[in-house]
Amino acid sequence: MRQSIFIIEHLEPNLWDWCLIEYKNISKIVGKQNLWITNVKRKNKKLERIAIVYKKRFSDILTEKKLNKKKICVLDPQAKKELSPKKAKNFEYFVFGGILGDNPPKNRTETELSCYLKKIPKFNIGKEQMSTDNAVYVVKNILKGTPLKNINFVKGIEIKINKIESVILPYKYAVVKGKPFISKDIVRYLKKNTGF
Hints:
The chain is α/β, with parallel strands linked by helices. Helix content is about 30%, strand content about 25%. It has a single domain (about 5-145), classed as Alpha/beta knot (3-Layer(aba) Sandwich), CATH 3.40.1280.30.
């Protein structure tokens, strides 16, 4: 299979620990050389160990590198068309918004990413919010030939913090080997940092 480039346009005001954990998981999924993280305003050695990092927005990078817009796909829950294995094979670059989820969703991918990438094909992988690492995992599987309808999902997961407390993550997660696809580092982070 041809190596695809997965681009995360970082759209949070800071590089939060949660973002770093998700980006690290994405690097495990696709490999450092296949992961670009753009729009990172400050140098970060941890990030540079797991990805190719750019200070500029992807819209500027594609102009500088003269990338073929027909080979770029933006993943946006608001896009009208669903990404299929047949369509995915036409693209070399897959662009995702590096966004921490809001409940209810605020359509930030559309307002903070898609609007900068005009005349570039846009597809959804379902209309519900996923973590960025889940979205990348799903697209990689679609690229391998698995249609979205054949990927199992669960909506909302509960993370036990201790015997009496838990956190509900109200997003959509792929199911892998019977369990929601979530980084163990996220679970550890929640148990360490959640205060009630």
